[in-house]
């Protein structure tokens, strides 16, 4: 039986994600017992005693002390609200304990914004990781020595797992169940909880918000120009000439300020506008393509899928209430 330790740090938790992931492993235990086996997992809550307001009442979580947990197989860090606050007190003790456990062979998984606490341990240095897409800019600013893959819903590297948003945490749990006990067990859990087991990207859920929280006023002016001229065929050379800046300096400053090269930023702005049109408008995909400055169907489709994770027709079918006849 594998011992799963769900860490409860000090502060405000996001309990729905925490309990949702726990339920996946509980369903794996049901699959085991229904097939004449011992339960696969022992589930433990450890760390700080938690009390918080939840659905107009008080939610209390009674935890075991970390000192009583002997050799857990896997530690989970749940999502937290205070993602910018450096851990202190009891939470810092928990992080030091996690580092010791990891070096003794325990695996560690972060769920959603739990990646911030995991990054504070130093264990994510130079490793791929995922967190919620909306926390991308803050995470990169706080932990530049990590390799944040914002489009991924999960990562698995040298005993460190990370998951993107809340539902991505369920996919990570299914992934771990399959890794431990096979596809049949994971499918049982997925069907029982109605989880899309094949989902592997959070690109389609990302709302591109412009990344203007930086100190470079000149780059912010260029960003605003891009966003106001989405129908134009913009290039890096054109922007450099218009704003009287060398191409090399523009690329360097733009990447430093926004974490995106300018050409990628231009693409993301255009695709964000296209996504909004697909969700709420009655234009055909060809009309939308021209409206965001593309005239090559193949190029538009490829860029859209790279950024949104779906083709335009797939995106419209999934997120729009309008029925249109398109062939992209």
From TrEMBL:
Domain of life: Bacteria
GO molecular function, one term: DNA-binding transcription factor activity
Record's keyword annotation contains Transcription: yes
Record-annotated HTH araC/xylS-type domain positions: 220-318
Keyword Transcription regulation: yes
A Pfam family it matches: HTH_18
Keywords: DNA-binding, Transcription, Transcription regulation
SUPFAM superfamilies (alphabetical): Class I glutamine amidotransferase-like (SSF52317), Homeodomain-like (SSF46689)
Protein name: Transcriptional regulator GlxA family, contains an amidase domain and an AraC-type DNA-binding HTH domain
